[in-house]
Amino acid sequence: MTARPTRRTASGRSRTAVAGATAVAAALLLTSCGDQTDAAVARREAVKNRDTSAPLFTLLPKDIQEKALIQVGSDITYKPVEFRSDGAIEGIDPDLAAALSKELGVKLNFNNATFDTLMGGMKSKRYDIAMSAMTDTRERQQGIDSSTGKKIGEGVDFIDYLNVGVSIYTQKGKTQGIDGWDALCGKKIAVQRGTVSHDLAKDQSKKCEKNGEQPIAMEAFDNDSEAQTRLRTGGVDAVSSDYPVAAYAVKVSGHGNDFQMVGGAPVKAAPYGIAVPKGSEKLRDALKAALERAIKSGAYAKVLDKWDVKEAAVPEAKLNGGS
């Protein structure tokens, strides 16, 4: 059988030779440029900007020192604690994280997730920590599901950094007699799934039924923005969320014309904590030391003043102060 002749390009080179040269050129390009994904670029930038002379750099675990990144799980839809504005991540938590970064010499890199997946994300090591207006509770410390009482993990340690309570707000001028938690029996309320507000609503609903009243009709959403939208369109009678979030929503939504706060002072005052998985004591202690330095230097107070939450300040970085 006669061999089929090799086809030539206009330049006279065989197609095989051209394909081979192209593959080699592509390989060389990848080798010289490296991985160009956003995550890879972020990792290279973090190493490039690592500050080994930072006061607390040597306190960090070796793997964190090497990658120069602390991966943070966060629900970035919770104004003013963390949210996106023109593509950038802003808010109380990102600003406090920046202050901690200066002390540690590495970047705290925020990754968006729904709030109820953060504990699992730390367990699977997708995130090193969680910083997302997470209330420090005994159940979370012990890895217990507050709804079922069942053990779901090893739990976390908390570095407490804000002390806040829970508030209720309604459509402006349409309170429907809601002046506190006891007035929610038979009403519809929206909450963010897995939060203290969600737990309080469940407890109050049981109390309503025990007293012979109608239970609370609850709608739980992945994020607080969805709950606000539901209230704005009249789908529910009220929303409950942490005081800083409720106050911000009342202030800015519809230029202050959409919502109003009801029920008086926030209830269930408890600390927000930076959550660190059990077994990560070295990272936990470095973060706690960084917060202590930020408090003493005044960097912490500047962040709270910026976001008008200075009444929520803690005098010191406390470990597992929730109950």
Automatic annotation (TrEMBL):
Keywords per UniProt: Signal
Residues spanning the signal sequence: none
Highest taxon in the source lineage: Bacteria
InterPro entries in the record: Solute-binding_3/MltF_N
Domain Solute-binding protein family 3/N-terminal: 69-311
Pfam families: SBP_bac_3
Gene3D superfamilies noted in UniProt: Periplasmic binding protein-like II (3.40.190.10)
PANTHER family assigned: ARGININE-BINDING EXTRACELLULAR PROTEIN ARTP (PTHR35936:SF17), MEMBRANE-BOUND LYTIC MUREIN TRANSGLYCOSYLASE F (PTHR35936)
The protein's name: ABC transporter substrate-binding protein
